[in-house]
Amino acid sequence: MAIPQELSAAIDDAVAADAHDLITLAANLHANPELRFEEVKAAAWIAELVASRNIAVESGLAGMPTSLRARAGAPGGGRVAILAEYDALPEIGHACGHNLIAAGAVGAFLAAAQVAERVGGEVVLLGTPAEEGGGGKIKLLDAGAFDGLDAAMMFHPADRDLLAHAALASLWLTFEFTGTPSHAAAAPHAGASALTACMDAFRLIDGQRVHFRDGVRVHGYITNGGQAVNIIPERAACEFSVRARDVAELDRVRAIVERCARGAAMASGVAVQVTVRQGYKDMRNNLTMARVFGEHLAAAGRPARETDPQLGAGSTDMGDVSHVVPSIHPYLAIVGEGEAMCHEHRFAAAAGTDHAAQTALAAARAMAKTAIELLQSPALRQAVRAEWSAR
Ligand SMILES: [Zn+2]
């Protein structure tokens, strides 16, 4: 291990001392799921816990009332950020386990804060709202909250331990078709169906899948299927999520999907309005840093693989962070492999268990040690930066 035993032990002790408060935080967030940008209780509870350790908390960065930041240590050396997410999903609550991400990040920050002054440098806790579709980290990036950082890290719960699994670049496309309504029985010849165009868009896109590179995901649903059964639909709309392993392929597939919608509109003689909403960038996992995290995890009896080709990939605004600051986003299991996945009811239930909270504490210890190792070693910071620059 590349940090002195006494620092490692000090971090373990700090997390143990905070364990009760961290488990309570995870449980409170789990019992009070709040949607993106509405994480009022979560942000307040995190701020309260950090402030109780006599560390100042700033709130409301980047125009988001539920964002927050705290700093510890001494500016001048390295600077490392630990990120907390805390938003939940509609209807299924904390099915992505962001309550555990928050507890792990706060635990890591408080532990690292206790030893940061001994090694020099600064550790920063960033509370990042709205990962689920709101892109809070992108707003924080735009506001300069990630400026001057050597590294950024967080952990995410999963069904297996992985140090550097992929996350896909993503965007959303909305197609609104406008046709000509007419009586569907008495005068079908007088109408032009927006719904036919909408459905044809799905069929045309499906036909293009043979041309997509590995890892591409295109999935959509109809948000407006017409107005009444006896009217040729004047309006119909659908929304697609497009994902790819990198931004270049994402852009290429976006153009194909858009072309299909325009082709469908032309075939039905209706108009289409296309709206593109920016999603997230692909995750550029910093392997140098991920392996350091993995060493600390393994030293605590939890060896992890780097990735698993059997496992699919989602998207996260941590991807955007990773394009600006060397970053890691390791996954740690809170359920047995294959037992449940993010965004399922079973995963939501698992995120509220004591077993899951123990995983958050393991993440806290490994992140704190990784952060301290980064602060302590200019050579490691340099190696991390060199890998990031080479991408
Ligand atoms: Zn998540």
Report on this structure.
- The chain has 391 residues and is α/β, with parallel strands linked by helices.
- The protein has helices at 5-31, 40-51, 98-119, 136-142, 194-207, 247-268, 287-299, 318-322, 345-350, 354-376, 378-390, and strands at 57-59, 68-74, 79-84, 121-127, 151-153, 156-158, 169-178, 217-224, 235-244, 271-278, 327-328, 331-333.
- The strands form three sheets. A six-stranded mixed sheet has the order 1-2-4-3-5-11. The protein has a four-stranded antiparallel sheet with strand order 8-9-7-10, with helices on one face. It has a two-stranded parallel sheet with strand order 6-12.
- A hairpin with an 8-residue loop joins strand 1 (57-59) and strand 2.
- Helix 1 packs antiparallel against helix 3 and helix 3 runs parallel beside helix 10 (354-376).
- The longest helix is centred in the first third of the chain and has 27 residues, at 5-31.
- Bound molecules: zinc ion (ZN).
- Residues 96, 98, 131, 156, 342 line the site of zinc ion.
- Zinc ion (ZN) binds next to loops.
For the largest beta-sheet, the strand count, sense and barrel status come to: 6 strands, mixed
Structural class: alpha/beta
What's the helical proportion of residues? Answer: 40-55%
- Low-confidence stretches are none
Mean pLDDT: 97
Structure ligands? zinc ion
Structural Rg: 23 Å
Q: How does the overall form come out from the CA principal axes?
A: elongated
Written as H for each helix and E for each strand, in order along the chain, the element string is HHEEEHEHEEEHEEHEHHEEHHH
Total strands:
12
Strand content: 15-25%
| Span between termini | 27 Å
